[in-house]
Prior knowledge:
Blueprint: E1 8-14, E2 35-39, H1 45-51, E3 56-58, E4 80-84, E5 88-97, E6 110-115, E7 121-125, E8 144-151
Parallel strand pairs: 1-3, 2-4
Antiparallel strand pairs: 1-8, 2-7, 5-6, 5-8
Amino acid sequence: MSRQFLDRLRIFVTAGSGAAGNPAIRGKGGDGGSVYLEVKDDYSLSRLLRENPSKRFKATHGKEASKRRFQLIGQNGSDLIIPVPSGISVLLGGQGNFAGSTPGTKFVPVRLGDLDKSKQRLLVAQGGLGGCPQTGYIGTAGQSHAVILDLKVSAG
């Protein structure tokens, strides 16, 4: 069994959507879960790919406010935490659903940050807001896009 060394990996992340609120009871829908990257010791990009060959990661959606279940506030979606190795640069790359972007627009990769310390976390996709009076009780979509994990290799 040969092991492949990866120094760059493109993954696809989708945050959960916010759930609908209920205007009849002025109930607020639950927020969608967000997607985070977190440094895990003794981890590699090869292992991440081996454990998740589809390279697709999705947080859960929020739950609706319900008159029948007497829930004025819907349950929030669960956040998703993706383990990554230490020493990576995180780039937002490819096309996707970005706040303020127009669909189909070419997108130049943008550096989101670097992950160098154990247990360090970085938000890569924000979950949608649950429906409330300000949004007309309609939940908003969570962010969805490609993220490039670029391992910083140094001589020494």
